[in-house]
# Entry
Amino acid sequence: MDAIYVTKNTVFAATAGAKTVLKLVTPTSFNIKIHELKLSMDGVTASAVPATVEWGTSDETTAGTGGGTAVTTQVKGRAQAHGLTVTQNHTAEGTTYTIHDGIFVPQFMGILVLQNPLGLENESPGDNADSFLVRINVTANVNVLCSVKWSRA
# Structure
């Protein structure tokens, strides 16, 4: 059985504008499959417009600036180092993002749980040191918690 990992950020006090919440950077030797994405927010007013949550990849030409290292925990399979560079809660955005998809999520107690069907998982490109990322665009200050369940492809 392949090793399965969960990478999560520490609570991120997101301010207005687009911010990368999690970025999983792969080495040139392998790519990753995304099995599940979870995100929640604790906005303070029910009348706030929804946030935009997007996920995609980056070729890491301009990586942006992460606000620390996200925590990665192996949850299944034979013990194996995950081998990624993971960043969280970006203070400066990269410029080479390719957004694959997105959805509106309420800023007031909003939650997103996205499970990818077997065989249809999003994958990071496998030819270079690339990344999978989750980005949020909020209109008010909210706390954001995000996790990604993944494995090597």
